[in-house]
Structures are given as C-alpha cells and as structure tokens.
Amino acid sequence: MTRAGPALPVGAAPVLDAAFVTGDFDAADAALAADLATARAAGDRAGEAAALHWQAMALHYRAIDGGAAGLAELPPSAIEAEAALFAQALELRRAIGDRAGVAESLFGTGLVHQVLRGDWDAAMPYFREALAEADAHGDLYTRSEAYRHVGFFHLVVTEDAAAAVEHLRRSLDLRAELGDPRLLASASLSLGQALLVAGRREEGLAALRDAVDRAAAAGLRASWADGAADWLRRAEAGETPSFTRR
Fold it and tell me: Superkingdom of the source (predicted)?
C-alpha cells in the first residue's frame, strides 16, 4: 500500500527531483518504467498503481514546465494520456482498498480537470474527496497538495481570500512537517500571494521572502527560484496578485 506518515509517497522521489531540481524527466520516466515492470512481474498491485500514478505526475510536471504558453499548446492526446494513467491507478487502488493511494489518484484526476482542462467545476469533486480521504488515510505530501489546490479554488473561484490563506497555510505546515526542502518554496510563494490578496501585505511580503530563501537553499530550478524572486519584486513595488477564472 502507499506509505503514510513522514515520507514521500511511493514513486514520488524521481518525479519531484526532476520537477524541482534537475529537470531530468527522462531519468524519472526510466525509474518509473522499471518500477512498473518489477511490480507487474511480482504481482504487486499496490506498486503497479503507484508507478502508474507517478508516470501520470511526470507527464503533468512536463506539461506545466512550459508555463501557460505550453499548456495552451498541449495536444488533447497528452491530456488524455495523463488522465488515463490516473484512472488506471485509481481503479487499482480502489480494488485493493488502498485509501491513501485513492486520495493520491483522486487528487491527480482533479489536476487534469483544473490545470489541463481549466475546468474547476469538474475538478472540485475530486479535490474535495481527495482532501477527505487524505486527511483520514493519506501521506503528508498528498494532504498538502489537496489543501493547496482547494486554497487555489478559493483564490480563483470563490474569491474568499481568508479561506485561501487558511488552506494554503495548512499546506505549508504539512510540507514543513514532511521536511522535504524542495517543496517549501512553492508553498510559501502561494501563501504569500494569498496574504497579499487578503490585504495582509507585511505577512505576504514575509512569506514571499521566505519563498526566495527556501528556493535558494534547496537549489531549485530557475523556473521556481526566478518565479519566487519575481513575485517578491512585484509585491515590494506594490503589486497585488490578480487571479481570474480560466
């Protein structure tokens, strides 16, 4: 079964390393292909589901690596490939009663709808179910991600900045408890943006400075580090983030 507690989910490490530090998605793909082959040969359905899920996540991080322009040009076949992997993982995890894994793959399915299809209405049932399952059974990383994207929902859709701050602060706290330095800068950045929207400027600036410091300390890729630094500069110049529904 997918591990819970103070560890990353099975299969996560090579993908997160590629996404945040190395940019080497080919290495992540190779590691996951080997994991999938090993799991299938051993009849390890939990291991198979984990490999399928993180193959989907590798596709997802590749897709967002190109920013908004890259997402706009993403072919439907790429979206369907990611969705199919999450669906396979979710089906397996439901079949074997892996509720931590179910939470993880529900969240992944929500990502397809929110990020790739721009459909918050379709995404939120998956995110809400993922959050409930993750809080009851899941690992710290999946819980942090579910809180994070429900927080984004409040920023973008309900425009409830207080609820966004609450969820994004919880996401950051869970990542701090997990203790993986690669994951902290993005959480601080999002919290800082929400605080600015909520009119809590000094707290927002402090969170953005924390994001910049954490990105440098973790050796994050330029796309992450520069994004945090850019938002700090903009906020110090008086800009408040504006989030509009796609």
Answer: Bacteria
Answer whether 107's CB lies under 8 Å from 152's CB. Answer: no
Cβ–Cβ < 8 Å for 208, 188: yes
Q: Look-up: residue for tokens 């291991």?
A: 47
CA 132 – CA 2 distance, rounded (Å): 16
Count Cα neighbours of 166 within 13 Å in the Cβ-side half-sphere. Answer: 7
Question: Cα–Cα distances in Å, from 79 out to 102, 115, 169?
Answer: 20, 10, 30
Asked if residues 4 and 20 have their Cβ atoms less than 8 Å apart, the reply is no
Q: Is residue 104 within 8 Å of residue 2, measured between CB atoms?
A: yes
129 — phi, psi (to 5°)? -65, -40
Q: Specify the long-range contacts of residues 169-175, CB closer than 8 Å, at least 24 apart.
A: 170/144, 171/144, 171/145, 171/147, 172/144, 174/140, 174/141, 174/143, 174/144, 174/147, 175/140, 175/141, 175/144
pLDDT for the residue numbered 1? 40
Q: What's the distance, CA 54 to chain centroid?
A: 12
Domains in the chain, start-ordered, CATH in brackets?
A: 1-127 (1.25.40.10), 139-246 (1.25.40.10)
Q: Using an 8 Å Cβ cutoff, are 246 and 113 in contact?
A: no
Q: What is this structure's pTM? A: 0.94
CA distance 158 to 66: 27
Average pLDDT over residues 140-162: 98
Q: Are 178 and 5 in contact (CB under 8 A)?
A: no
> What confidence category does residue 5 fall into, taking pLDDT thresholds of 50, 70 and 90?
very low
